[in-house]
Amino acid sequence: MPDGRSDGAASTLLISACPGPPACAAVHTYLFVDGLDMVARSDSRMAGLDPRRLLRPGGPLCPTDMPCNVDVAAQEQPEPGPDRLTIGVRLRGETVIWSDLMYPGLDGKVVEEAHFRLEQYLGEVERAYAALKDQLVIPPSEPGRVSNCVTTPTHSGGQARTPADAHGRCNAD
């Protein structure tokens, strides 16, 4: 599967959010992979989901050993529709893998997977959430994972923990 980076280096994630009205119809998340707007390049009719849902601690973008399918965007025009942009998120060692991607990279080749260094990935999710916390009312926990996602600790070497908990950033609900 073609990776986001042809040089084999880890991809970089940058997250930002649109504050909603009057700039846009609703608050939504931008997900930039290696400087490219992954949502817009995947489907220009889509807009990222609400950052309060995607970025919350223990939320759907928090990686676990168990692969998860995560809705990251929905059709925007004229109203949010049933069409969704869903990606796979999983943790393998110190690497977060986004799979089931389908957008053109800078070189014109289709990007199907992106690999992020765990520290950079979790740091960016945490940074983006902290930046939003003061601007937005954060609702109680909302379901964000769409299938087979385990939010209970996994067992590794006799210690019950999630891989993200070991790094002290994401906490399962």
Question: Can you give a write-up of this model?
Answer:
With 173 residues, the chain is α+β, with helices and mostly antiparallel strands. It has one domain (13-166). The protein is built from 4 helices and 13 strands. It has helices at 38-42, 51-54, 118-133, 163-166; strands at 13-18, 28-33, 36-37, 46-48, 68-75, 84-92, 95-99, 103-104, 110-111, 114-117, 145-147, 154-156, 159-161. Strands 4, 5, 6, 7, 10 and 11 form a 6-stranded antiparallel β-sheet that branches. Strands 1-2-3 form a 3-stranded antiparallel β-sheet. The protein starts with 12 loop residues before the first strand and ends in a 7-residue tail after the last helix. The relative contact order is 0.21. Residues 138-173 have low confidence and may be disordered.
Number of DSSP helical runs: 4
What kind of oligomer do you see? single chain
Helices and strands, in order, run as: EEEHEHEEEEEEHEEEH
Q: Tell me the helix content.
A: 10-25%
Indicate the overall shape.
globular
Structural class: alpha+beta
Strand content: 25-35%
If you compute it from the alpha carbons, what radius of gyration comes out, rounded to the nearest whole angstrom? 16 Å
Number of domains: 1
Q: Count the beta strands.
A: 13
Distance between the termini: 32 Å
Mean pLDDT over the full residue set? 77
- Main beta sheet: strand number and arrangement? 6 strands, antiparallel
Low-confidence stretches: 138-173
Biased composition (Basic and acidic residues): 164-173
Region (Disordered): 149-173
Biased composition (Polar residues): 149-159
